[in-house]
């Protein structure tokens, strides 16, 4: 018969250690998970913001190049199921001729998974010398 | 002896027995600490990254607000500069002298209601437009005219956005916009004239006109002598027609005073200052040719009168010969009158500017200034044939895109003719370096206040029908600019030319229009200046754009 090692861990010790470890690790993992989820959400926010901004700047460039927007150029807001798509809306300023309000719309998926509309607007002038 | 673990009574635990639990506790503690540190640092990193992303996004939203405010100020500025009801309309057209910086505050633009309305959206919550500022920083004269100037407008907008914890990110955008103010019509003082020809000798030979005048005056003296001789030979019954003729006939001296000799200075300018809708047929300009024709027509009646006098001399008692002579003398006198009347009419319609006139030097200087270099300086657009696209096509596109063209457009080169038909609203000076410009019934239905001026530096301007415009044949390159008018063509405006080939334009007429006159200005006041004749234009793009982040 093999002799027991007097310096080893007992079943009880191992169980207690596992319990303590589990109790300590769970919140840590939760913290890591929450941080990761928040990071992903912030990434998505940044991505959607940059896309909307790029769409706004692109529209501004087109107007700057002399391409005057028509009401038909405005695109319908996208469905929630296609959150990546950015749509543009053009609206002539009622008071200031030559000034356009350009709006970029998209969906932002929050950390909790909810989809909320994300909308950015900017005023753009027709580039002309008069 | 075996070292079996024994926790039995009376047996004290050996240190080796405790070390197992202690080690385990230490290991677990270390592991937990490592995991906690990893988790915390990751959380901190994520939070920092998230905060940084959040700040960036919020900062960009503040930037959007600032950009929108600057765009709105620039658009409102452009609209106000073209709207006579706006207080800025007159202020932007104010004169600037060398000692002044021309700085102007433009508080009317700083409200930016449309940009502020953008802040009502969900995404822009917490974004604030803190302040806007619009200033004309600097204005300078192009040359030496206080009403023709260039400058730069500075537009500044500052916006901030909340990022939590009472903290805000700030974005301040400053943009510079170049502006030009020019007289968008006939340059002064030529706007006061309906017709101005700097080289009067280009329209006719005034020495020849004066020679013809002397000849005609001589004919009048001859006819007077012949009438006197016939009167002496006539019976009392036959004398009555001669007396009547002599009473009607002015002396050559009286006629010489009435029909004055034209100046023959070199150089010498010719100009006309008409009243609204007064018509100046251009065929009258070549006076020497007209007189030559009149003299040809007069030679027959004069010879007839001479022959009739011979018959009277041969038969003084012949009543029929006297009756014929009286009739011939009357016809000859009418023919001579027809050779003198154009000179009188010319003097009534046109004026001369000779070197002895104190205005002559200043006018010559002003005309010499109207070369290509001047127009290039004041032009808002410069077009040319390029990349397979004709300048004429670019001009048409510019017109359809902008609707109203104001200011000065210089066309450097154009292989195709520039066709100006239809309506050109706004106040436009179109400068064409060379090539043809064809105007057909241009601006017949143009909105009130429209003013079109075509400047040719070396090409041909062709006019058909009634054209509501002015033409300047300015000093240019090797080939002088020319004007060709179709039969019955009318230029309703002004014609200013360094030289005018009267033959080419002789079928048309200039019709005086008061609207081309831009008034006068003095160093003390612009009250008598028509400020709506000044075009204020802005560069399409900002000259600079700086962003301050805090």
Give the structure's gist in a few sentences:
By secondary structure, chain A is α+β, with helices and mostly antiparallel strands. Helices cover 42% and strands 22% of the residues of chain A.
Can you give a write-up of this model?
The complex is a heterodimer of chains A (130) and B (550). Chain A is of the alpha+beta class and 130 residues long. Chain A has one domain (11-125). Helix content of chain A is 42%, strand content 22%. In chain A, strands 1-2-3 form a three-stranded antiparallel sheet, covered by helices on one side. The termini of chain A are far apart. The model of chain A has no long low-confidence stretch (mean pLDDT 76). Chain B has helices spanning 15-81, 87-92, 113-117, 206-233, 236-248, 252-258, 287-314, 319-349, 360-368, 372-378, 391-402, 502-505, and strands spanning 104-105, 127-141, 149-164, 167-183, 195-197, 269-272, 279-281, 351-353, 381-383, 407-411, 418-421, 427-432, 436-440, 451-456, 460-464, 466-467, 470-473, 482-485, 490-493, 495-497, 509-512, 534-538, 544-549. Chain B has three domains: 51-180 and 541-549, no CATH class; 204-267 and 284-353; 370-517, no CATH class. In chain B, the strands form four sheets. Chain B has a nine-stranded mixed sheet, with helices on both faces. In chain B, strands 1, 2, 3, 4, 22 and 23 form a six-stranded antiparallel sheet that branches. Chain B has 550 residues and is an alpha/beta fold. The interface between A and B is large, with 56 and 67 residues.
């Amino acid at each position: 018969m093999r002799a027991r090692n007097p310096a080893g861990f007992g079943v009880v010790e191992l169980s207690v250690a596992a319990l303590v470890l589990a109790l300590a690790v769970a919140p840590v993992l939760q913290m890591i998970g929450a941080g990761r989820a928040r990071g992903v959400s912030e990434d998505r926010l940044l991505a959607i913001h940059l896309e909307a901004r790029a769409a706004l700047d692109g529209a501004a460039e087109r107007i700057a190049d002399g391409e005057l927007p028509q009401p038909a150029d405005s695109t319908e807001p996208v469905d929630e199921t296609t959150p990546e798509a950015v749509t543009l809306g053009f609206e002539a300023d009622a008071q200031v001729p030559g000034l356009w309000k350009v709006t970029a719309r998209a969906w932002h998926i929050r950390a909790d998974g909810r989809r909320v509309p994300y909308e950015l607007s900017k005023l753009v002038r027709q580039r002309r010398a008069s | 002896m075996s070292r079996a673990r024994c926790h039995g009574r009376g047996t004290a635990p050996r240190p080796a027995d405790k070390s197992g639990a202690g080690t385990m506790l230490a290991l677990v503690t270390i592991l937990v600490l490592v995991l906690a540190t990893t988790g915390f640092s990751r959380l901190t990193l994520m939070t920092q990254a998230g905060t940084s992303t959040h700040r960036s996004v919020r900062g960009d939203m503040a930037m959007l607000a600032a950009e929108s405010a600057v765009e709105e100020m620039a658009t409102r500025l452009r609209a106000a500069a073209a709207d006579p009801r706006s207080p800025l309309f007159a202020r932007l057209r104010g004169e600037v002298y060398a000692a002044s910086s021309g700085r102007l505050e433009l508080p009317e633009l700083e409200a930016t209601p449309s940009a502020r309305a953008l802040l009502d959206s969900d995404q822009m919550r917490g974004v604030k437009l803190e302040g806007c500022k619009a200033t004309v920083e600097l204005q300078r004269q192009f040359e030496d005219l206080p009403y023709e100037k260039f400058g730069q407008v500075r537009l500044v907008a500052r916006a901030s956005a909340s990022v939590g914890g009472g903290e805000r990110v700030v974005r301040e955008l400053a943009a510079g916009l170049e502006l030009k103010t020019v007289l968008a019509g006939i340059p002064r003082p030529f706007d006061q004239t309906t017709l101005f020809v700097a080289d009067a000798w280009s329209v006719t030979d005034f020495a020849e006109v004066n020679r013809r005048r002397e000849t005609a005056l001589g004919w009048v003296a001859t006819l007077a002598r012949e009438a006197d001789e016939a009167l002496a030979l006539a019976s009392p019954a036959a004398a009555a027609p001669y007396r009547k003729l002599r009473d009607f006939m002015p002396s050559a001296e009286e006629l010489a005073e009435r029909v004055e000799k034209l100046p023959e200075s070199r150089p010498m300018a010719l100009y006309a200052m008409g009243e609204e809708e007064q018509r100046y047929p251009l065929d009258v300009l070549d006076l020497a040719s007209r007189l030559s024709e009149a003299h040809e027509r007069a030679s027959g009646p004069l010879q007839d009168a001479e022959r009739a006098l011979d018959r009277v001399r041969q038969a003084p008692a012949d009543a029929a010969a006297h009756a014929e002579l009286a009739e011939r003398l009357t016809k000859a006198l009418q023919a001579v009158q027809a050779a003198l009347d154009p000179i009188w009419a010319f003097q009534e319609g046109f004026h001369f500017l000779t070197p002895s006139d104190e205005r002559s030097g200043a006018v010559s200087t002003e005309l010499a200034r109207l070369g290509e270099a001047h127009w290039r300086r004041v032009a808002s657009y410069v077009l040319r044939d390029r990349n397979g696209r004709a300048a004429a096509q670019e001009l048409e596109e510019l017109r359809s895109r902008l609707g109203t063209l104001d200011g000065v457009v210089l066309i450097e080169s154009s292989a195709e003719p520039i066709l100006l038909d239809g309506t050109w609203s706004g106040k436009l000076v179109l400068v064409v370096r060379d090539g043809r410009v064809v105007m057909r019934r241009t601006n017949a239905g143009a909105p009130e206040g429209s003013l079109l001026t075509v400047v040719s530096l070396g090409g041909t301007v062709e006019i058909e029908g009634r054209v509501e415009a002015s033409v300047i044949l300015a000093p240019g390159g090797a080939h002088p600019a020319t004007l060709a008018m179709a039969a019955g063509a009318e230029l309703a405006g002004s014609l200013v030319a360094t030289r005018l080939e009267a033959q080419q334009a002789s079928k048309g007429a200039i019709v005086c229009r008061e609207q081309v006159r831009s008034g006068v200005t003095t160093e003390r006041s612009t009250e008598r200046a028509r400020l709506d004749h000044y075009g204020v234009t802005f560069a399409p793009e900002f000259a600079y754009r700086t962003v301050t982040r805090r």
